[in-house]
Amino acid sequence: MNNAANRPLIAPSLLAADFARLGEETRAVEQAGADWLHLDVMDGHFVPNITFGPLVVKALRAHTSLPMDVHLMIAPADPYIAAFAEAGADNISVHPESGPHLHRTLQLIRSLGKKAGVVLNPATPVQAVENVLDLTDIIMVMTVNPGFGGQAFLESQLTKITRLREMIDDSGRDIILQIDGGITPKTAPLVLRAGADCLIAGTAVYGAPDYAGAITALRAAGSRVTPTQLASGG
Ligand code: DX5
Ligand code: ZN
User: For the domain that residue 161 is a member of, what is the CATH number?
Assistant: First the structure.
């Protein structure tokens, strides 16, 4: 387990925040108990939506000490990775489809001293990450199609989460399994049972009147159950 307290990490996604008050919205989730801040970077090309780039990440760095979890939905990604690293990103995650050389991209992120993540779209198989586990710190499973917040959770991804959990455990590596899209107090138990370590939630946090209550509700969804615990009915 990557998370000593054996509780899920909660990463609110700023995509659902009030974009006119990003600094305040960042501070608010830190005060509300978030573990990471998730930042969705979209280019209107890799995904059909546009958000923000390294300048905004850099501006927000001054507003929080939370790890900044940058999710790049841009193609190509490589030419911008150094800029996001310099802006203060702690984790930088890319989609394998965004460039021809995932191995090289992960090497680049690691060479900048950042945690490297691989993001799997709903149609992307687990094999996309299988041969680069030695360069991977985070695997992010998309449980919606990337591009927008507020979409319905795709239950079809649960078997993929289970398979990735097994793959990570078999590897013996310290890789965090993150889930992104449609996470609510109802869907959180499903992904935690399947083996997730970290829940990304936009609407479920920023769409709630009480951010702390929303984060607590997600955390209360449980923790990852190990195969041993399952076998013993625990
Ligand atoms: C979608 C983004 C998600 C998004 C999730 O492309 O990667 O991080 O913010 O939003 P919700 O939690 O509303 O599904
Ligand atoms: Zn995201």
Answer: 3.20.20.70
